[in-house]
Write a structure and sequence with these properties.
- By secondary structure, the chain is mainly alpha-helical.
- The chain folds into three domains: 336 residues, no CATH class; 93 residues, no CATH class; 120 residues, no CATH class.
- Helix content is 64%, strand content 5%.
- It is built from 25 helices and five strands.
- It has a five-stranded mixed β-sheet.
- α6 packs antiparallel against α17, α15 packs across α17 and α18 runs parallel beside α20.
- The protein is globular and about 90 Å long.
- The relative contact order is 0.08.
């Protein structure tokens, strides 16, 4: 315990000492607070986590063992703070993610500073400003918890602290990819550690959670775990996951510039890839033992997602920081090589005039870019944060160049301009990403609120995702809601008779259905073809339009089922 307290004290002292990092993390926190509870409806996965957390709080085992328990446990425990608030679980999840996002960024800094002398701050800077990072902080999803447990395990591994196995255990109980850490840690200890048997024991103990989970899953439903079964039965993602990673690495490029024959995209990816390879080999050469866990986890994580069945952008998040670390490693290696060769010191002194001119030009361009982003960024608060980020960049650049001669001022101004533009586009990209998802499935929330006010005791509503509407109402899901995929009928011919037999009162048509292909999994799984005649928003022989809800770009049509039809 004393050793752990000492480690925490050293870490806290290091954080206080680095005032620039502390200031930056504070404004990152403000930036993310701006997007707290930003979405009308959270990601659909939250409702599954909500049900699981409610079940665990009632000491009930889950009906399905596809989702691991740690995230529901955490948000369930946090929800107790809000007592009987209807949205207690949602607030708990968002607060947990907000706090853990700052913790994870600090851990990224601690890990990066073990490999980089000057660029560790830039790793945190780029990781913090990545739009995906902000998005996943605001959405009640488990990726932030997963990242924090992974980073904690890797950091303690670099410190050769055996508690790394405990955090690997936590990662394995958050999402299945987290389990990869356990055999990697054991393998590393078998190669480098003298206490090999002890490491194997720790590895076995930290695997206990997954072993018990798989046993419970089998007892609940004999056969493969639902997560494993989905991976086996559906088509693997394959190289598409690599493309998803590449797209996330160039997320700083403004969408308007990505269409210029792909030149900017290609050049950016080529430069990033080259720097990443340089950084990778540099770390491998100078810190083979230290980089072992990080490297194997990156490779195994990517391989696992290439054979996985789903390709979501958020799956990149747990390893994005590693790719940034390698890229910054390449930049530091190249800059060290330039300094070692004394290229700038060998340049004729008459070049000072050109350096002064370059410094002036880059400073003016930085000012113009600030004006440009003032117009681009909607919201005064967001622009103020952007200016704070710019000042952090300037402070950082001055801190790494001790000599303030004109050549270094030229370098500082050029770096400030580049990072200023990157920060501006990243913040703008974040704003665009958040706004594009702000109204996603918001119509289901308003359907639920309308239904809560207008439903009678025996009413039942049919819709594709009734759990969302139910969450925003005070009505019983089992009694008042029915999901369209639960219909036995697969043909319009028997549709009317079945909904009448089931005493369905209302049917909902969502404008989202107009934007998806009739051959898509969603369209057919939810049997949207059964209600396709309701898209026009007009009364029919069997349905009467009673409410049209419009929110943002989406709308929903609520029809009442007519029973007195001759």
């Amino acid at each position: 315990m004393e050793k752990l307290i000492k480690i925490n004290y050293i870490c806290f002292k290091k954080l206080i000492k680095d005032k620039l990092l502390l200031l930056f993390l504070f404004f990152v926190l403000l930036h993310r607070l701006y997007y707290f509870n930003y979405f009308y409806v959270p990601n659909s996965d939250f409702f599954a986590f909500n049900d699981l957390a409610q079940g665990w709080l009632s000491f009930n085992l889950p009906e399905n063992y596809a989702r691991l328990p740690l995230y529901p446990w955490v948000i369930g425990a946090g929800s107790l703070i809000f007592l009987n608030n209807q949205y207690a679980m949602l607030y708990s999840a968002e607060i947990v993610n907000l706090l853990l996002s700052i913790v994870s960024l600090y851990l990224v800094y601690l890990i990066s500073s073990m490999f980089l002398k000057k660029m560790a701050f830039l790793v945190v800077f780029l990781a913090a400003l990545n739009p995906l990072s902000v998005f996943l902080t605001s959405q009640p999803l488990l990726e932030t918890l997963l990242l924090t447990t992974i980073l904690s395990s890797i950091y303690l591994d670099l410190k050769e602290n055996n508690k790394r196995y405990f955090f690997a255990f936590l990662a394995s109980m958050t999402r299945y990819e987290g389990f990869l850490l356990i055999p990697i840690l054991v393998l590393k200890d078998l190669i480098y550690s003298r206490r090999k048997i002890f490491s194997v024991i720790l590895g076995f103990l930290s695997s206990g959670g997954m072993i018990i989970w798989m046993i419970l899953s089998y007892l609940n439903s004999p056969g493969p775990n639902p997560y494993v079964q989905a991976t086996r039965t559906m088509k693997p993602v394959g190289p598409e996951f690599i493309i998803t990673i590449a797209n996330e690495l160039i997320s700083f490029i403004h969408p308007d510039y990505q269409s210029i024959k792909g030149v900017i995209v290609f050049v950016s990816l080529a430069v990033i890839f080259i720097l990443m390879i340089i950084g990778f080999f540099w770390f491998l050469k100078k810190s083979t033992r230290e980089i072992f866990t990080i490297l194997l986890f990156l490779i195994s994580y990517i391989a696992m997602h290439m054979v996985f069945s789903y390709n979501l952008t958020r799956f990149v998040y747990p390893v994005l920081w590693i790719l940034i670390l390698f890229t910054m490693g390449g930049i530091e290696y190249v800059s060290n090589a330039i300094i070692k060769q004394n290229w700038f010191h060998n340049i004729n002194k008459n070049m000072d005039l050109y350096f002064r001119a370059g410094f002036s030009i880059f400073s003016i361009l930085t000012l113009l870019s600030v004006i440009y982003f003032f117009k681009m960024l909607n919201g005064y608060f967001i622009f103020v944060l952007y200016m704070i980020f710019v000042m952090s960049i300037i402070a950082f650049m001055f801190s790494i160049f001790k000599d303030r001669n004109v050549k270094n001022l030229f370098l500082i101004s050029s770096f400030v301009l580049i990072l200023c533009v990157l920060a501006g586009f990243s913040i703008y990209g974040t704003q665009q990403l958040m706004d594009s998802d702000k109204y996603t499935k918001a119509e289901f929330r308003f359907v639920g609120e309308w239904y809560s006010q207008n439903a009678k005791s025996n009413d039942k509503i049919l819709m594709t995702e009734p759990w969302i509407a139910s969450y925003y109402s005070d009505l019983s899901y089992e009694k008042h809601f029915l999901a369209s995929y639960d219909l036995k009928c697969n043909s319009p011919d028997c549709f009317i008779s079945e909904i009448r037999e089931r005493n369905i009162t209302y049917v909902v048509w969502d404008s989202y259905f107009d934007r998806i292909s009739k051959s898509s999994l969603y369209y057919n799984y939810y049997k949207i073809y059964l209600i396709s005649d309701l898209r026009e928003g007009k009364n029919t022989e069997n349905f009467e339009l009673v409410k049209k809800i419009e929110i943002g770009p989406s709308s929903a049509l609520i029809y009442k089922v007519l029973y007195d039809v001759k």
